[in-house]
Amino acid sequence: MPLQWSKKGTRRVPSKIYTCNHVYEKELSNIFRGNTWNYVGLSSEVEKPGDYIQTFVGDVPVILIRDRKGTLNVFVNRCPHRGAKICHNQKGNTKVLVCPYHEWAFSLEGKFSGMPFRKGIDGKGGMSEFFHSTEHSLQALNVTERHGVVFASFSYDIEPFDTYLDPVMLSYFDRVCSGRKLKVIGKMQHKVNCNWKLQIENVKDPFHAALLHSFFKNFGIWRSDQKTSVKVCSSGKSSVLVSTASFTKAETEKKAEKKAELSLLDQRLIDHQREYEHGTGAIMTLFPNLILLQQLNCLAMRHVIPDGTDSCIKIWTFFGYEDEPEELTKRRLLQANLLGPSGLVTIDDNEILAVTQEGAKGSPDSEIVLEAGVGESSEDHMMTESAIRGFYKYYRGVMNLE
Ligand SMILES: [Fe+2]
């Protein structure tokens, strides 16, 4: 039965979109294999010719690799012979990609470059006259890079990245990824027991941060009385939450006194060195599944990989700038303790998203309610769900769910 979307538009979302296999399959084809730029990594992760990392576009395993000319290539991690996964290491450097099954080999440009026993053994057997090596390249994706951040698409008919993000989104992307060389300072990976969209919604939802996250509230990083705004791009698909913390020591201590005398033994966890204009935190969601996070001095790419209807994998790439002082890098690493699988803040989300998924599963005919604020555009306060409604405005179009 086709999925029915409520007449109330984006103010309601049917719970089935978090649980239905048919919807999930359609998302993989219409979104992740459609006209989307999907985050695949930082170019500094594959700096030298032959450097590669494994990652995903949607649920499709891919390899990001730099060839001898310095070009970045993204290939489906699948041997065109019998379909086995070619690359098994998370990262490395190689001169050639070789499938472990029958040792078909491919160049760094993805072209078939050889195989054992092509002409048979002792003059017997081998590949037939119908085998043409040029027909058996690795499947290559369309690749683009902006300021050291690499995106790939199954579509070769997609608009350039700088119009894929509208000017406001692009300005927030460039705010952190400005062209200064990025350096990776850590990686984390974990599974969240919820549909990938619940994870994306979570960071489009500004007011949960001041309610659910006790750590944020108690130590002044994100509270309801702070200056917060929500920027939504014109199509609705991408957005950014911008907040300004009141984290000076005096302020934090004053608030902490009021709140059961909580204080940090190590204040460095939230000590912040102002780096950017417009807020002390900006959490951007780039359609479909990248979260570009700046919270205090912590910078991270959070890549949300769909993993069936009721699970997603989050890969966190923490980064800084190559030319920054070591002290700042250390501060970023320290603040990574707020995030990740057991971070003082993210742990709340991991748990609440899992029980939200259970709610969808237990009541498949229900709807979720998005009545905070009106419409799907930018707002200069936090008591709004406009960024989530914007996401679903775009989502319904691309999924043909009218
Ligand atoms: Fe949260």
Describe the structure.
The chain has 402 residues and is α+β, with helices and mostly antiparallel strands. It has two domains: 38-143, 3-layer Sandwich (Rieske Iron-sulfur Protein); 167-399, Alpha-Beta Complex (Naphthalene 1,2-dioxygenase Alpha Subunit, Chain A, domain 1). It has nine helices and 19 strands. It has a seven-stranded antiparallel beta sheet with strand order 12-18-17-16-15-14-13, sandwiched between helices. Strand 3 and strand 4 form a beta hairpin. It is globular. It binds fe (ii) ion (FE2). The site of fe (ii) ion has 6 residues, from loops.
Helices and strands, with pairings:
Layout lengths: L11 E3 L6 H12 L5 E5 L8 E7 L2 E7 L5 E5 L14 E3 L3 E2 L6 E2 L5 E3 L27 E5 L2 E5 L7 H4 L2 H10 L5 E11 L3 H7 L11 H5 L9 E5 L6 E5 L5 H10 L22 E6 L3 E6 L2 E9 L5 E10 L4 H10 L10 H17 L4 E3 L16 H13 L4
Antiparallel strand pairs: 1-19, 2-11, 3-4, 3-6, 4-5, 7-8, 8-9, 10-11, 12-18, 13-14, 14-15, 15-16, 16-17, 17-18
The structure holds fe (ii) ion.
In terms of DSSP E residues, the strand content is 25-35%
Largest sheet: 7 strands, antiparallel
Q: Which CATH first-tier class of the largest domain would you pick? A: Alpha Beta
**Tally of separate domains:** 2
Number of strands: 19
Please state the second-level CATH architecture of the largest domain: Alpha-Beta Complex
Helix content: 10-25%
Bound heterogens, unique? fe (ii) ion
Global shape: globular
- CATH level-four homologous superfamily name of the largest domain: Naphthalene 1,2-dioxygenase Alpha Subunit, Chain A, domain 1
Chain-averaged pLDDT: 93
Spatial gap, N to C terminus: 14 Å
Structural class: alpha+beta
Q: Order of strands side by side in the largest beta sheet? A: 12-18-17-16-15-14-13
Note the total helix count: 9
Radius of gyration (CA) equals 23 Å
| Low-pLDDT segments, ≥5 res | none
The topology string of helices and strands comes to EHEEEEEEEEEEHHEHHEEHEEEEHHEH
CATH fold-type name of the largest domain: Naphthalene 1,2-dioxygenase Alpha Subunit, Chain A, domain 1
InterPro entries: ARHD_Rieske_2Fe_2S, Rieske_2Fe-2S, Rieske_2Fe-2S_sf, Ring_hydroxy_dOase_asu_C_dom, Rng_hydr_dOase-A
Pfam families: Rieske, Ring_hydroxyl_A
Keywords: 2Fe-2S, Iron, Iron-sulfur, Metal-binding, NAD, Oxidoreductase
Organism: Xenorhabdus bovienii str. kraussei Quebec
